[in-house]
Design a protein that fits this description.
Distance between the termini: 59 Å
Number of helices: 24
Low-confidence stretches: 537-552
Order of helices and strands: HHEHHHHHHHHHHEHHHHHHHHEHEHEHEH
Largest sheet: 4 strands, parallel
Radius of gyration: 31 Å
Strand content: under 5%
Number of strands: 6
Strand order of the largest sheet: 3-4-5-6
Mean pLDDT: 84
Shape: elongated
Structural class: mainly alpha
Helix content: 55-70%
């Protein structure tokens, strides 16, 4: 965990220094957008960046304030009236929750969140960031917190702009969107825009600037407990932990693809949790794995933990030495930088191709995006995951039922179909494909009942491809057996796995089937079924329910 790989020392040094320079304007911008001030963003980048790299599970990951974290943090900052003890208590608690996620190995579950949900709330966050900065681009502050108040402030800002601020903002936008890629290797566009904008703001006075920015080391903030605000704090902490974990693990996946390595999800969450816990104790904006900064680090030669730790050290030197110069930075320049950040967060790659993919995925993405922007992130994620799960279950159940609806001339191999043909419709085979769950349970009995009419005497239920079934499916099987019993039909079980067998026996469904109606495979079941209906052996007439050996 703490072993520092020095085999790529030169590359890690270059990656750390380059990423530190890239992260500087973003840290200041995120800090200002959070409401806690630019230095809070810088402290967060320093602390989370250093500790998450040291204790994390992704060698090349660069951590710090990100769009999702800042959006949530800004919301709780406004809701709690800027009370630092309460606000940063939420950050500390979020870090502890992340550590808990790591020890409980929840990282693997977080990675199961469907892509349309991730795309929707990440794009929604991008829209929120852009919306919050539009008024600032024109030299005005949004009236109140939240997306809707920010958007309602835009028309007034457009009608009555601060022309100097607007000029600086437009210049910043042009630079960050059109900066030459070759030049960006030596001088990142956000940093260049920040320097030029600051110089212009001193030559053309009138644009709102950051003002007094403290320098030096952060001060310790003691977490506090307030019963009245506890619900808000807990909700914010959980959301920060969840979004921070998802953001970090997605970044880790990007790093894996670029470096051909495999990260440790649990350790990464522990490292992120430690970083955010300490950041909260010293008034730093919470952070997560930052995709853009991680990519810059890797492309600059960084591969191991030293690069992320050095990135934190570079930012610390800025906080100790150059902080007073930050007071001259215009708000419009930071707004321009953040608009580019928000734009990049929006999943344009998927949106350009969405019309060629499943329409439900696009609809789900749109629902989550809308809920993220106009409701809240918790609702968006919760609704998105639930809808995605229900859609998957529906699709899976339809696939299972479609398989059951196949006629006997399309089930099994040629030999099995020949056996079914010889039975003259007295035997029918049901091949369950995949897990049986509550999604298919509701229609399972109905489908089998429809296919068991006429002269059907034996139903063969093949479970060989069923890895598990839940209570609902087991009750459906019980209903199938009971219906067959009432109508004078026999039921055979074939190919039952140990897991399915345990469920059927545990719920007393198995006792409805006599021992001689259990078969290792469906071939044996089919041969016995022919005997049961009197096709292959004249001595074996079809048994009736009065025969004690035929009790189902």
């Amino acid at each position: 965990m703490y072993n520092l790989n020095t085999s790529n020392l030169r590359g890690d040094i270059m990656g750390g220094i380059t990423t530190g320079i890239v992260a500087l304007p973003l840290a200041l911008a995120f800090g200002e957008a959070s409401g806690a001030g630019p230095m809070a963003g810088l402290y967060g980048a320093i602390i989370v960046g250093f500790l998450a790299s040291l204790f994390g599970g992704t060698g090349s990951n660069i951590s710090g304030p990100t769009g999702p974290m800042v959006v949530v943090f800004a919301g709780v900052y406004t809701t709690l009236g800027g009370n630092p003890e309460l606000v940063f208590s939420a950050v500390v608690l979020a870090g502890l929750i992340q550590i808990g996620f790591g020890f409980l190995k929840i990282g693997h579950l977080i990675r199961l969140v469907p892509y349309p949900v991730v795309s929707g709330f990440m794009s929604g966050i991008g829209v929120i960031i852009v919306a919050l900065q539009l008024a600032r681009l024109f030299g005005h502050e949004p009236e109140g917190g939240g997306t809707i108040p920010a958007l309602t402030s835009v028309p007034g800002a457009v009608i009555d702009p601060n022309w100097i601020a607007l000029g600086i903002g437009v210049m910043t936008l042009v630079m960050v969107f059109n900066w030459p890629q070759k030049l960006g290797k030596y001088l990142p566009a956000p940093l260049a825009a920040l320097v030029i904008a600051t110089v212009l703001s001193t030559l053309f006075v009138g644009a709102p600037i950051l003002g007094d920015v403290p320098s030096g080391l952060p001060t310790f903030i003691m977490p506090t407990y307030d019963q009245d605000a506890m619900v808000i704090v807990l909700e914010a902490a959980f959301l920060l932990a969840l979004l921070g974990s998802i953001d970090s693990l997605l970044t880790s996946l990007v790093a894996d693809n670029m470096t051909r390595t495999r990260h440790n999800s649990s350790q990464e969450l522990i490292g992120q949790g430690i970083g955010n816990t300490v950041a909260g104790l010293f008034g730093g904006v919470p952070g997560a794995g930052a995709t853009m900064r991680t990519v810059v680090n890797i492309r600059s030669g960084g591969q191991f933990k030293i690069s992320g730790m050095l990135h934190g050290v570079v930012l610390l030197s800025v906080a100790l030495v150059f902080a007073p110069f930050a007071s001259l930075i215009p708000h419009a320049a930071l707004a321009g930088i953040l608009i580019k950040v928000g734009y990049d967060i929006i999943d344009w790659s998927y949106l350009k191709r969405a019309h060629r993919g499943p329409r439900w995925d696009l609809a789900l993405m749109g629902i989550v995006l809308g809920l993220t922007v106009f409701v809240d992130l918790i609702t968006a994620v919760a609704v998105g995951v639930v809808l995605a799960a229900l859609a998957f279950i529906k699709q899976l159940s339809e696939s299972q039922l479609e398989k059951l609806n196949l006629s006997d001339d399309k089930v099994g191999n040629a030999e099995e179909r020949a056996i079914l043909a010889r039975s003259n419709g007295a035997v029918t085979l049901f091949d369950f494909g995949g897990p049986l769950s509550f999604g298919a349970a509701a229609d399972l009995g109905h489908v089998i009942r429809e296919r068991s009419t006429g002269n059907v005497q034996v139903l063969i239920l093949d479970f060989s491809r069923v890895p598990f079934l839940d209570l609902s499916a087991a009750k459906a099987v019980e209903t199938i057996v009971a219906d067959a019993d009432r109508s004078g039909k026999f039921v055979y079980f074939a190919g039952i796995t140990e897991e399915v067998n345990d469920v059927l026996h545990g719920l007393d469904v198995a006792q409805l089937i006599t021992d001689d109606h259990w078969f290792k495979n469906r071939a044996d079941a089919l041969e016995q079924a022919l005997i049961e209906v009197g096709v292959d052996n004249d001595k074996n007439k079809p048994k009736d329910k009065s025969d004690p050996q035929a009790v189902v």
